[in-house]
Design goal:
The protein has helices at residues 4-14, 24-35, 40-50, 54-63, 83-87, 90-101, 143-151; strands spanning 75-80, 114-119, 131-133, 136-138. By secondary structure, the protein is α+β, with helices and mostly antiparallel strands. Strands 2-1-3-4 form a four-stranded mixed beta sheet, with no helix packed on it. A hairpin with a 2-residue loop joins strand 3 (131-133) and strand 4 (136-138). Bound molecules: FE2/S2 (inorganic) cluster.
């Protein structure tokens, strides 16, 4: 279930800590970065690799909202539609993503390239509207700029 590169990276992380439970968050992150989400089988594989009970892995993985537990596209768009972003046109961006990419909130494009989640304020109200694509921050979005930005994610 884990790729060779994920196993190698988790093994490197393991070397840094005495207690394998300390490796849980970075190990889960490795899997999510690689797969876009964390499948139950991946949690089991991490458990075996770290010799940590599955229940402990699940407890940690489900406690933090940044970990995703359903299949996602290769890239996760997190678009803010809170007050400042909406005033600056975020709703038009949501419509554009639907029209141009067939991408609804909580949905995934047919080609598996993008998933979209609407999020609360990401602290960039002064440069709204704003979004994250994976861990990359983008601000001052327009319909034109968001199209150009998304072209760079394959
Ligand atoms: S309202 Fe969107 S970043 Fe604050």
């Amino acid at each position: 279930m884990l790729s060779d590169s994920a196993v190698a990276e988790i093994n490197r992380i393991k070397e840094k800590y005495q207690d394998p439970r300390s490796c849980l968050l970075p190990s889960l992150y490795v899997v999510q970065r690689e797969n876009g989400w964390i499948a139950p089988e991946a949690m089991a594989a991490i458990g075996e690799l770290l010799n940590v009970p599955k229940a402990t892995i699940k407890g940690v993985a489900t406690f933090y909202s940044m970990f995703i537990h359903r299949p996602m596209g290769r890239h996760l768009i997190q678009l803010c539609t809170n007050v400042a972003c909406t005033v600056m046109g975020a709703e038009r961006l949501v419509e554009m993503l639907k029209t141009r990419y067939g991408l609804d909130p909580n949905g995934t494009t047919a080609d598996g390239r993008f998933s979209l989640v609407i999020m609360e304020c990401i602290g960039a109200c002064g440069t709204a509207p704003a979004m994250l694509v994976d861990t990359d921050f983008h601000e001052n979005l327009t319909e034109e700029s968001i199209t150009k930005i998304l072209e760079s994610y394959t």
